[in-house]
Write a structure and sequence with these properties.
Largest interface: A-B, 48 and 48 residues
Shape of chain A: globular
Low-confidence stretches of chain A: 1-7
Largest sheet of chain A: 9 strands, antiparallel
Order of helices and strands of chain A: EHEEHEHHHEHEEHEEEEEHEEHHEHEE
Oligomer: homodimer
Helix content of chain A: 25-40%
CATH class of the largest domain in chain A: Alpha Beta
Number of domains of chain A: 3
Strand content of chain A: 25-35%
Distance between the termini of chain A: 36 Å
CATH architecture of the largest domain in chain A: 2-Layer Sandwich
Amino acid sequence: MSERPQPVRSLPPGGTVGILGGGQLGRMLAMAAARLGFRSHIYCPDADRPAADVAAACRAAPYEDEASLAAFAAAVSVVTYEFENVPEATARYLAARVPVWPPPVALAVAQDRLREKSFLTDAGVDTAPFAAIDAAADLPAALRAVGLPAVIKTRRFGYDGKGQAYVADAAQAAEALAALGGGGVLIEGFVTFAREISVIVARGADGAARCYEPVWNVHENHVLARSIVPSGIPAAVAEAAKDIALRIAERLDYVGVMGIEMFLATGDSGPRLFVNEMAPRVHNSGHWTLDACVVSQFEQHIRAICGWPLGTVERHSDAVMANLLGDAVDGWAELAQRPDVAVHIYGKSGAAPGRKMGHVTRLYPRGSNPCTSPLQP
Amino acid sequence: MSERPQPVRSLPPGGTVGILGGGQLGRMLAMAAARLGFRSHIYCPDADRPAADVAAACRAAPYEDEASLAAFAAAVSVVTYEFENVPEATARYLAARVPVWPPPVALAVAQDRLREKSFLTDAGVDTAPFAAIDAAADLPAALRAVGLPAVIKTRRFGYDGKGQAYVADAAQAAEALAALGGGGVLIEGFVTFAREISVIVARGADGAARCYEPVWNVHENHVLARSIVPSGIPAAVAEAAKDIALRIAERLDYVGVMGIEMFLATGDSGPRLFVNEMAPRVHNSGHWTLDACVVSQFEQHIRAICGWPLGTVERHSDAVMANLLGDAVDGWAELAQRPDVAVHIYGKSGAAPGRKMGHVTRLYPRGSNPCTSPLQP
């Protein structure tokens, strides 16, 4: 799986970082780059590009436009991406011209849930039991392999609960399979978990890697609602979660920041971690690091892709990060009045229901987070 | 002195903040504005404009170009400035078209050292003894009034020790006066002080005002080298310093953030504070708030000028901020390796000797700053 197409040298301040994607993650990456003295150049096909407002330059063009990509590559010193659905071909085209980090193979693995699960299994990491379903005829064997209840998911382009269906029995499974196109999907056994956590891991160009402390994630309607740190999980489990994240980053010869979502199951045989998803980019569950750490996940990513030493992953405060979804952002005036709350608004043009419009992070002195609830082992 | 030319309403996220000046203070203001969902539009006559790299728009034009100013006013919802040498006429021209905060009168006061000292005296605030010298004939009386040693300063456009001379006797005073043009200057009695401190005060459009904790400033070659918090001064003196800053802001009917530099003298009659200088803008000695507080001085300024409620001024950490002057910025690779150090580089094109190229802030858990040295009363 190792791939290191270009040598990485430290990029001095004043250099230009190219970012594929113009959303809030690109915006926060661009601000982190600016803090270190870099310029950002955004490449984005979308009309709404909040990242462009904090970047020195922006190119609006499709990911398939090779002339635009070539001009972009010529204008920047390194390229990164803010989301995992950038076409792998785009990343490879650019990587032939300019360093691209994280490595394009990480995109390829993350874009295909079957490839992702297989990669994780090969890495010796536990996941929910899974099976590929290429056609309806594969369903009975797949159900026997993973058990019920289960979740059927498209192999590609799913996020925030889109492109997946929970199925309780064989009839529902057949129905969901048909609705998702009859094949080319994955079925996963449903994991009953006590807590959902994630680990933000950063790996530098020199191979040094560090993890922020795992966080407890609370989802609502399949979208991250809150991240809580400390997570309340036992210290040994937190160390195990970090080890898993480090193992994944190492195996991909990764450079940059990655978010690894995990389920923590508890039971008579003790706690057990299952990796649910890996995102080869800065991650929503790491936004709290902007306010609770000296070096945020965004700066850590910029440091890594620019060949700088990683920064500290220590935190000075406890934190609860809450997303502002859809018209929740209209509450900015009230939120701005709360003490100890950092308000972040992404400058997007429209607040469609459920759209991530901003987030708030409430800080507490270390050891005093009232939302942290210790998990009973 | 009160002046409130336009009503202030809360500017919702998505609005555009106009910033006069394109240096590092404008750059950090633009990033703070972006964090709250605003766009920034920079107006700057200089060729090197690091603020433009993080702004949605930038207009390069002289401060006297009324057509450009009118177009700028039409493109923004509120105007502010990053330095106090913006011509007052520019601020007044804009203020007839769009809200300008801090109020232009604050510029007028801060631009003229004689007017500044007179304003402070009228406000009942102690300063060094001072006298105006319009011509050489005024020198003997001025020297009798302020005593020796003294400092002769130009009335306008001095900063970082430029345009001033320390004089120990009458002959040196005559020489310095001649070198500074023979008149139109101010002479100040030299205050022997135990510690130089500053207070960053924020005042909202609603008149609510808050001060960050005073900091201890260490100057080298007339330029701020380090700011240390806590400052080590007695609590009662810190409260007195904040009261002075609040009184100044109130008297100017100020909206925004202001930096007030003070000398703390100790002696048999107890500690005494003298205001040295007021800067109607975000201030170098407040840069530590970016990393040690939930809400930085830059965000506080944006909140104030946009009619938002002020944020908290509490800090979660102790801090030492050190400027990176001139080629000190070339040490970025080593600085980036230090734990608990936040690196800020301004993206300027040339590192002339003494030029402010960036800063670093070292954080310590509260109560553990090894640089804080209690001042003996």
